[in-house]
Amino acid sequence: MADATTAPVGGATNEIVSTNATKTGELPLDRVSLIGIMGKPAEKKALFRMTRGDILTVTRGEKTNFGTISEITDAGVVILRNTGNSVFVPPVPLG
Q: Contact at 8 Å (CB) between 85 and 79?
């Protein structure tokens, strides 16, 4: 018999995920958007949705076509641009 205290594998989608995944107009589809940050503090990765709809996963120090990833924290990502400017990009809010 299965233990009722363990989390199910597969099955129904989390309510928060299903509610937010079906909202229209939340992401600007014509520009790059930071959609998530994951990993341990020393190994953070950021997920960007590109204009074509593909997902780009980046790490600190990585060079992309929109700049070099300078810093990734839970609060957002700092990108150094070719112009010398840096940009702080907070993730898309949930809900």
A: no
